[in-house]
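Researcher: Here's the sequence for the chain we discussed earlier.
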Amino acid sequence: MLYFGRAFCITLVISVILAFLLDPFVMLVMNFRIPRGGAAFIVCSIALLCLYLVGLAVFTQLADFVEEMPYYSRRVNELVDTVADRMMRIEDEAYKLVVPKRFQDTQAPTEQQPPQSKRRRRNEPPPAPTPPAVQEVRIKQEHASLLNSAYAYITSLYKVLLMGSFVPFLVYFMLSWRDHLRKRFLSMFEGQERALAGRTWQSIADMARAYVVGNFILGVILATASAICFWSWHLPY
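Model: Thanks. This is the structure I predict for it:
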């Protein structure tokens, strides 16, 4: 069921994580005496705007990276050649230090084989016929046609766009109906189980926020490291 309904499950899980992440901002906007529906709409609109700006920035950076790809490849080749030359010099120096000098230039004499007589004795049997060479057979896998590849690519892109189009509406629904959903969820439990279910709800929300914030911090660290590498490559030797 999870395999065949993976599109629905992935969309629902992403929407739940985003709803948990944006819920504190909705509560912050509600402090200005704005109803939950309006606060959820404002927060979702700002989140979509930020997502658009981030996507635009990533697209611009990727375009610049593609333009400077020849420079990067040339720079990497230069670094690899420099490291290879240094390794060869280190190997030569180690060889000179370890191997004695009298054994460095000596070469093993080649053994001379006596020439074979071209004439064959009368009583000598004729040589056995050599078997024919076995032909090598290789199985070449047939590549998919261009039409099938284009259809598969368009199908996957359509599924991603369809899933992404449902996410904002689900997030807005979960944020605007958060109190009703929480009340209906807790009504399924009684007594101490209701308090435990409430704490579990809050723990899941905190875990989802921590997951997203942790990935964001990791992305900032990787972006900083890549920027440092970028500027170090642009500096001269």
